Amino acid sequence: MIKSRPFLLFLLFICLTHFFWLTAIPGGKEDSLLLGFSSKRILLLCMTLLPVCIFGIISTRKLNEKLLKYEGIFKRITPFLSVVVIIFGCFFFLIPENTFRIQITTPAIWQRLLPVVSTYFWIAILLISFSIISENKAHMSKTGAEGREIFIDFTRGFAILLAILSHIFFTYGYGNIFGDAQFLIKAFTRFATPGFILITGMMFELVYFQRALKHGLIFSTRSLLKRSLSCYLAYLISVFIAWFNQVITTQRAFKAIFFLDGSPYSDILKYYSILLILAILLIRLRLIFGIKAIAILPLLVWLINIPLNKIAWSSIDSSLSNLTSLLFGKPAISPFSIFHSITFISLGMVLGFYLRLARQKGNWRSFIMALISFIVLGSIVSLLAVFPKSLVRILYLFANDYRTNHDLAYYSIGGTGALLILGLFWTIRGQLSSKWLNSTIVLLGRDSLWAFTVGNSLILLLPHNDNRPIGVILFSLALFLITIIVIQIKNRLKNIFQHPLQIHCLTS
């Protein structure tokens, strides 16, 4: 529980610190009204002290008793308002480093407002921190980790890590960071997408198909549609941030909303918005015809791809080409193709089937045999697809052209690499349950939507002017640390909203 005295002590420290900070800022010609300060400066000084005055007054016994009947409202509103203040504060702090479309102040006024905004920012942090500390363990919701295979969550978290790192490296320039080794590093980060989509296919089989079996297809459909809407809303947030920071124009942002143009680092959210709707048909197909129908889908995809290559698609300059590229990989614009990625989804669903079978039998034999068989098959297809190119040439093409052109080699090499990574993490699954991994990489895997949205948004917002290796490392560490903190706070606030607790900041 939040006690009045420690809370007020922290609050007093925050307010007084920022009060003296504001008084120390040199004034302009207008600062001469009272004690060398203008009326505007006095107003700002009062605003820095206002919170401690308010909390001091409402902590009195008489007023406290009167406010008890509004306790439920405080429980709901306080975390929400705190998050809004924190978000506003973050945007305000980043104003000098970015070119936001709304420039609130001149540099001089921004410097004056900084202590005031910082006051309320840290008070919001304080409120959330004390709310989380006061969370009753008896009411905490379960994490849902029971029955989950930690190596799957870890593999997905690792794929997210690779994907965001690839975006960071792209922002700084692969060549600027890695020099001659850029294609090797870029080729390795290319395994992120196949790995993540393959895990998604496993989730279709292990989660959504099982829901359809137990509760009916309608129940599973609702879950998928809800998840699809969440991905689309996250995509809209990413587009808005890119537009707000003037990375894309207003016209381009408007088209991006309807998938008729692209937005930096948000293609995967757009992709999942559609894929999760397609999953409804895949699960229905799975219910009617069984796992064998899913297993033959990759063969059908690449047979159908032959006539698709002969169709005269819209030119790259056409807005419609962005949508057809997302759906069918034609023309070569989008790094994601719903049609071609059925290869990864199908592979994941079949692998999920054998994982569930292994669980039922109580041993891993069927899963291991399936994993090895797919790796062997993928290796054979990869060798046939790239023959007779040299290894250096293959690395270059896999890092660049294969993905953009949705070549068979990208899907065979990418799928094989993803399976090898999954197999590696399965082998060391016993070492993946440590607390720090659960709080970092596994957390990213379990909250993948938040990880992508927050991580990629930070790439657009955080300053990245230092191209030295140490600058890239510090930027990456800061980005992942902030992402993990945001997800942790989100999870705690979710518990607080689901199980409102008595936050006694008004009681002694």
Draw up the topology in text:
Blueprint: H1 4-24, H2 39-58, H3 61-67, H4 71-93, H5 107-133, H6 150-172, H7 174-178, H8 182-189, H9 192-215, H10 217-244, H11 250-257, H12 267-289, H13 291-295, H14 297-308, H15 320-328, H16 342-361, H17 365-386, H18 391-399, H19 401-404, H20 408-427, H21 435-438, H22 441-446, H23 448-461, H24 469-498
Describe the fold and architecture.
The chain contains 24 helices and no strands. It has 508 residues and is mostly helical. Mean pLDDT is 86; it is low at 136-146 and 500-508. 73% of the residues lie in helices and 0% in strands. The chain has helices spanning 4-24, 39-58, 61-67, 71-93, 107-133, 150-172, 174-178, 182-189, 192-215, 217-244, 250-257, 267-289, 291-295, 297-308, 320-328, 342-361, 365-386, 391-399, 401-404, 408-427, 435-438, 441-446, 448-461, 469-498. It has a domain at 4-134.
Mean pLDDT: 86
Give the helix level as a range of percent: over 70%
Identify the overall geometry. globular
Count of strand segments? 0
Counting helices, strands and paired strands, the structural category is mainly alpha
Q: How large is the count of helical segments?
A: 24
Tell me the strand percentage band. Answer: under 5%
Q: Termini, distance in Å?
A: 11 Å
SSE ordering: HHHHHHHHHHHHHHHHHHHHHHHH
Spatial extent as radius of gyration? 27 Å
User: Could you name the ranges where pLDDT drops below 50 across 5 or more consecutive residues?
Assistant: 136-146, 500-508
State the major sheet: none
